[in-house]
Design a protein that fits this description.
By secondary structure, the chain is α+β, with helices and mostly antiparallel strands. Helix content is 45%, strand content 19%.
Length: 84
């Protein structure tokens, strides 16, 4: 799975996933292309978990905890999908 964290200015962070590169392309095409704001991409669950656990990442500082929480919630949701 590919994990994506969108960081739109003036709006809450939003995290989502794609199953693979083809799914990512399809989702971006359906949305009219890539978002026009900052986005973080992790190519797999391991790298997303490592990023989440990296307390030194400046993204997580201050109000960035909202972005970290969005990633956490997506990791939990996909774990539930994998087990279900």
């Amino acid at each position: 799975m590919i994990y994506l964290l969108e960081l739109p200015e003036g709006a809450p962070p939003h995290c989502w996933f794609a199953f693979d590169a083809d799914d990512l392309r399809a989702k971006l095409d359906a949305a009219g292309g890539p978002p026009g704001h900052e986005i973080r991409v992790w190519p797999d669950e391991s790298s997303a978990v490592l990023a989440f656990e990296n307390e030194a990442d400046p993204l997580w500082a201050g109000p960035g905890w909202h972005a970290r929480r969005a990633l956490y919630e997506q990791l939990l949701a996909t774990e539930a999908l994998a087990e279900g």
